[in-house]
Here is the input.
Amino acid sequence: MKNNKKAVVLLSGGIDSTTALYIAGEMGFDLYALSFYYGQRHKIELQAAGKIASRYGVLQHITIDIDLRLFGNSALTDNIAVPKGRNIAEMAGEIPVTYVPARNTIFLSFALAWAEVLESNDIFIGVNALDYSGYPDCRPEYITAYENLANLATKAAVEGRQKIKIHTPLIELSKAQIIQRGQELGVDFLLTHSCYDPAENGAACGKCDSCLLRMKGFKEAGIPDPTVYKVS
Here is the structure.
């Protein structure tokens, strides 16, 4: 049953953000999806986000251009090799070069601005603190701090018309549990994209951290992985 509330959902086109979108829909929110072309290596994930938003009946889907290549210092936005073939211990050992400086802070700021315009109290983000690549802006303490900031930052909040809640429904789930939850909700995983360094035809490399975590998640969930991987 619809509750006639609006939610802004950060949608990258990956498994986590797509599952978060479906969860927001299951909770009865009217959905407004926000994606970013921030100078990442490819736009395949944005094509995926567009298909997912259309498939799920999102009321409005906005893609914003921000050129973080101007800052660089990430394998996703700079001429730095994407790590390949790492094991889970290596992934957890340090913050990887695929970390994009302050990315979630930037994305949440845009989501907050749109939420104020929409008169929405609810923002969904598919961050995960278990099977992730060590990014500092995926941790629960970061989300709590940003939510506190958000409620000090807008005119609507100061005037008592808005109380921002940042929903992180996946934050304590493993990748396998997220995939299982997505399947329960009817997510078409074939539409999602995770790879940091895909081939020109869109095939996933199968070797970057994101691909390896994705494969591990499907295996542990006992669900076939529909991803098309590049033949090496």
Summary: The beta strands are 5-10, 29-37, 60-65, 122-124, 165-167. The chain is about 40% helix and 10% strand.
